[in-house]
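Late entry, written up from scratch paper. The run itself happened at the end of the previous shift, but nothing got recorded in the book at the time, so transcribing now.
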Amino acid sequence: AARAAVVVTFAPLLKRRGYGLTWKEGCVLVYGGLRGALGLAMGLIVEHNHYIDSKTATSIGFYVSFIVFLTLVINGATVDEVYRRLRPYRPNQYRIRHLAKQLKKVEVELQNADLRRLQRHWFFQGCSFELIFQCVPNF
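Output as recorded:
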């Protein structure tokens, strides 16, 4: 609730400063930011406080750590689904093209490195590597 209040409070200020924040981005920001760091810090402070008896402090530390762990596991496992369902940004039309271009670049670099290594190997001396590359599929 505190994170949501901060996001709602500062969203207009961010918009005026040039950093627009849509409601979908705000939801992802609030949901993705729930990791329990503040609760864990407070639990550690209580655990190391000399005015609280050791047994109570240890119990509080254990329960807070367990809650933080569950928060990490649950949010970590579900934040991708929240993002996918909200779709805060339109799909990038150039993503697939860029990915294909980068994969092609990696493929060519690996082929060239492998080709040089194979050409130096004693077993492949005298082979026609141009003919071999004509037979190998090129994706």
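The CA atoms of residues 43 and 61 lie 5 Å apart.
(Scratch paper discarded after transcription.)
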